[in-house]
Amino acid sequence: MEQYNVTGMSCAACSARVEKAVKKVPGVTSCSVSLLTNSMGVEGTASPAAILSAVQEAGYGASPKNASASKAADTSADLDALADHETPKLKRRLIASLGFLLVLMYFSMGHMMWGWPLPHWFDGNHVAMGLVQLLLAGIVMVINQKFFINGFKGLIHGAPNMDTLVALGSMASFVWSTYALFAMTRAQVDGNDELVMHYMMEFYFESAAMILTLITVGKMLEARSKGKTTDALKSLMKLAPKTATLVRDGAEVTVAIADVQKGDVFVVRPGENIPVDGVVLEGTSAVNESALTGESIPVDKAVGDKVSAATTNQSGFLRCEATRVGEDTTLAQIIKMVSDAAATKAPIAKIADTVSGFFVPAVISIAVVTTIVWLLLGHELGYALARGISVLVISCPCALGLATPVAIMVGNGLGAKNGILFKTAASLEAAGRTQIVALDKTGTITEGAPRVTDLLPAEGVTETELLTLAAALESRSEHPLAKAVLADAEAKTITSPEVTDFAALPGNGLAAKLNGMDIYAGNAAFIQTKLTLPAALAQQAEKLASEGKTPLFFGGAGRLLGVIAVADTIKEDSPEAIRQLQNMGVDFALMSMLDVLRDPRWGRSEECYSEDPYLSARMAEAAVIGMQESGPEVVAKHFAAQGEGTGGVNASAARIGERELREIHFPPAAAAIKAGAKGIMAAYNEIDGVYCHANRWLLNDVIRKEMGFGGIVMSDGVAIDQLDSMTGDNVVSGALALQSGVDVGLWDEAFGKLEEAVRRGLVKEAQIDQAVLRVLTLKFERGLFEHPYLEEEGEIHMDYAQNPESVQLAREGLVILQNKNQVLPFWENQASGKKIAVVGPNADDLYNQLGDYTPPLRRDDGITVLDGMKLIFKESDIRFSQGCYLRKRDENLLKEAVDTVKNSDIVICVLGGSSSRFGGASFDTNGAALLDNAAADDKGTLMDCGEGMDCSDLELPDAQLELLKELKETGKTVIAVVICGRPLVLTQVCEIADGVILGFYPGPRGGQAIAEVISGRVAPSGRLPVSLPRSTGQVPVYYNYKNSYRAMTYMDEEAGPLFPFGYGLGYGTFEWGTCSLSTERCNVAALENKGLTISFSVKNTSERGGYIVPQIYVTDVAASTVRRVKELKAFQKVWLDAGQERTVSLQLGKEAFCLWNQKMKYVAEPGVFRIELSDSAQTIWKGEFTLCI
Questions:
Q1: I need a labelling partner for 297 at 20 to 30 A (CA). Which of 162, 204, 536, 757 fits?
Q2: % of the chain residues with pLDDT over 70
């Protein structure tokens, strides 16, 4: 875009005229004229001469803005162009105009309206009065001659503008008044006093002057607004350095920035601004780039790193080579972008300009018509002319063309002032319709200055000692992180001792001597050259780094003294701003996260995270935190023990005791509540003869008193009405649920009868008030009193392609169960020229990749396995056949599949189940599927998993097993992919197939993830969250059974599950090194303070990167109650590049060794514990830990 300065414009009609004229020039593709900045941006191939000529022919002046590299570098001319020259001029015009106008008003109206005295020589001298008014009005008109010059120039060029209206109105008043003065003089000479007084009343000299003065007031205010809107651009320009220190012939010389050429060598000392963009040739330093990037933490620069103009060198000496100068620098590009934005117009501004182009001629026409009409009605010329002038003046809104651009430029200016740049005015207008805001954190929602956030002293070191040593070292440093440490020490009134032999090692750290002792500080890499990092502190520092903090390590005398974390902290108003952004949509999410799966026959197995309470608790915690960060609060469901129903039947009795509840089913709820869940949904089932919805101990004593829950308890669908089977009275059921702790009903009738329950004395109003208060409190917190309803925006479409988390979840959740002869991965280079058969009922059915209660999806929103294979492999090599229905064979489909496979080289057979509700299924009042669907059509069951779809047989349907066998009998390599919602018996599948991949409903883009794992593009990392049985009769097969019996041991079945909890294969090989405990024995207090760290080394010995998932299991050897054979207490997913070796540490706290004793107290009993490190169900190391009294 070429930019020009335009002169002579006074209103929107002017800018529209210029824009129209330039657009007619051949070669011009777009033109945007800004009245606000008196500038014009032109795109196209037209020559500047042709453009300037078009502007001049339209009656205005124009000149190209300086654009050469040398001139662009010198910003003084640009700053002068942006300076507000207009406001001072208008101010002087206004003061002068007001002075003469006040005198004119005194003579013309003061003596008539208020009887103010006049000099005696004016007594009866009406001609003299008229002459004085003529003279004063003429002076005001001369002062404001610009209105007449611009106005009549526009009229002559056929483009009348707002000044034309002002000029016509003022001139008409003046000319008519002059005529009246001459006529009055004639009457005076003739001695006609009556006619003299008549013409005296026809004077409008004060109107001629008043119009000009009032419009000048408006013009001055507009000019003042225009001046202020360019402040942001002027601030950016002032960032540009004026001089640079170059190295020429071995000597340093200071030159103007315009004289710096590409390839020149310049030097920058601490505290100086970098003059132009360049690359570091010599030296190291920390450079503050916040002026350009908004990042408050300085960036370390060393040889080879790039530096940018207007950034500040903060510590070391730099010698650099100029790579971009003048208008090519990063700063110049930013200035150009803001300047271009000022020269562009938003759609609404273009509409205003178009209107103003027609407005002026229309007003003139109306004024003429008005004058003629009054004359035709018999009024005198003076009377009619006064009405016409009124139309001209009153209809002169000079702000019509300025209101929109001023608003836009104020928006741009405020945005730039707050670090927000809009590329065009159209972008600013579109910002008002923004629905999603992506924040980069630094400088946007943070303070912009680093502060100390965490102090982690080493064992035997106090926080004061650590901070004292840190302050001593950092007191000699110029680095901003040092200032953060010193500020914290000062705030805590810590005095730093003097150090000697101080040395700054940019990019690494600091070194010095304190009382003869070597002390040092720096990053982890630097500190490890001086000492060995304790595993516990290293892990804590790694966690701090993952939170966006910068850990600084401090050591002395050969040992680490501690870690200080520094970060850019959140602004005080940021949480409120984010809350307001989030309060624009969904307020609560009902999320299944509390059910621990203990019987896979249960249809709602798919809603469980795991069979293990620790893993379920960590997943629930992450789900609550993640959901809250995206906006909505969470209602966690279901509480409690719904995953341990009798025989796997939905909503059946959980026949367990309190200890089993506390050990297995309460941990997820406790974790969700601690993470901030605002709601808990009660479960359908009963425990020991008491429904959960009627269990006050569960809903009040446990979650409120023990777990500290303060939110709402919600019922499941019509669950309160189901209490009728116990109470026999719907009113009593509602009262019982309320007294037990339920605050909100769902679809039931019983809560609608609480008024009757009060009349019958079953509940007190105070109990209802308490429940209502909890609900209203949440509504208030969510802002629902102010905004109770969502705007109706029609269908909301979720584009999963824009949410990479969807496919990433699928990638990480897939589990490789079997890989005979390393058939997986099927590398893309192996597939060249080979035909791939994709077969099976789940190969191309999107809804079968989703769980129960999922919304409708557009077909192109998802990727099936067939779609995924076509994305990665050559589409012409892919063959598809369904093979069978989900639960029913079809001879034709089977034959077609076999024929397809015979003409292929490898088979991907996609089997499993479905929870799809979109095949015509019917449902109960609470949403559960009805079992009548089993015979709903000729293709078998519409869904075989989900609420209400409990089953007695966990084998795949016969039709699918027959298909798999027939395909294998062709002699081809068969990879089975099982997509399902519950743990299935896959014994026969593993006997038949060469490779087996399990995916628990991988989601809308799961097909892509499966294809990526098959091809090796993605390294598999999934581990089983549940155990898979060898047969249905083995159930339950969970790994963490009590050691009081031999689980899964039958005379007609091999002992143990087919695949245990934690199992999952990868594509790489890993060599595990020595494993050790931080201590082999300690007491409870020490365990609570320091924890127990398990550290081990591991090396990736394969040619590709891969994941390990080390898991720590604990077994209590002897205790006061029966313990479990082992329990998961820690895990971590770790990526290792090919050949990489690293040390990994996992931490156990006191809770890992606690139990519910015979008095039902949660305690850590002294004794011996076996610690086991494993991955993929393979034991890597075992050790013992003793907890002392």
A1: 536
A2: 83
Looking from the CA of 951 toward its CB, the CA atoms found within 13 Å total: 24
B/e letters for 817-843, b = 16+ CB within 10 Å, e = fewer, are bbbeeebbbbeeeebeeebbbbbbbbb
Confidence of residue 934 (pLDDT cuts 50, 70, 90): very low
User: Please, is 75 exposed, middle or buried when counting C-beta atoms within 10 Å of its C-beta (0-12, 13-18, 19+)?
Assistant: buried
pTM: 0.57
CA distances from 1102 to 528, 1066, 1136, 1140 (A): 27, 11, 10, 9
Say how many C-beta atoms besides its own lie within 10 A of residue 632's C-beta. 17
- CA nearest to 680, candidates 727, 632, 647, 639: 639
Yes or no: say if 61 and 18 are a contact pair by the CB < 8 Å rule.
no
Dihedral angle at the C-alpha atoms of 616, 655, 1035, 1055, nearest 10 degrees? Answer: 100
What is the average per-residue pLDDT within 189-210? 81
Which amino acid is present at 837? A
Task: Give the angle 464-470-476 at the CA atoms, nearest 5°.
Answer: 140
Pairing state of beta strands 1178-1188 and 1081-1083?
parallel
Q: Hey, what are 305's tokens?
A: 């790193």
Residue 441, amino acid: K
Q: Amino acid letter at 227?
A: G
Are 312 and 331 in contact by the 8 Å Cβ rule? The answer is: no
Among 1074, 1026, 1015, which residue's Cα sits nearest to residue 831?
1015
In the annotation, is 440 catalytic?
A: yes
| Number of neighbours of residue 1078 by Cβ within 10 angstroms | 18
Reported as a single tens digit per residue, the pLDDT across 962-973 is: 999 999 999 999
Strands 686-687 and 690-691: antiparallel
Tokens of 26: 């051949």
**C-alpha to C-alpha distance for 430 and 436, rounded to whole angstroms:** 12
> Other C-beta atoms within 10 Å of 803: how many?
13
Give the contacts of 287 (CB within 8 A, at least 6 positions apart): 274, 298, 299, 300, 301, 307, 311, 312, 313, 314
Q: In this structure, are strands 679-682 and 712-714 parallel, antiparallel, or unpaired?
A: parallel
Q: What is residue 208's predicted lDDT score, i.e. its pLDDT?
A: 83
Contacts of 115 (CB under 8 A, 6+ apart): none
Structure tokens given for 107: 């003579």
Catalytic residue among 440, 701, 924, 1137: 440
Per the DSSP assignment, residues forming a β-bridge with 1181 are 1173
Pick the residue with more confidence: 655 or 481? 655
SS in 3 state form for 1112-1165? EEEEECCCCCCCECCEEEEECCEEECCCCEEEEEEEECHHHHEEECCCCCEEEC
Sheet hosting strand 265-268, strand order edge to edge: 251-256, 243-248, 265-268, 318-324, 277-282, 306-307
Residue 918 and residue 933: Cα distance in Å, rounded?
Answer: 12
Tell me the DSSP string of 450-514. Answer: EEEEEEEEPTT--HHHHHHHHHHHHTT---HHHHHHHHHHHHTTPPPPP-EEEEEETTTEEEEEE
Torsion of CA 523, 527, 532, 538, to 10 degrees: -10
pLDDT digit string (tens) for 374-394?
889 888 777 787 788 777 666
DSSP states along 521-588: EE-HHHHTTTSPPPHHHHHHHHHHHHTT-EEEEEEETTEEEEEEEEEEEEPTTHHHHHHHHHTTS--E
pLDDT digit string, tens, across residues 541-556: 888 887 778 889 998 8
Other CB atoms closer than 10 Å to residue 268's CB: what's the count?
26
Band of residue 115 on the pLDDT scale cut at 50, 70, 90: low
How far apart CA 31 and CA 3 sit, in angstroms, is 10
Token pair in block for residue 192: 């006609």
State how far the Cα of 853 lies from the Cα of 560, in Å rounded to an integer: 54
Q: E strands within 858-898?
A: 878-881
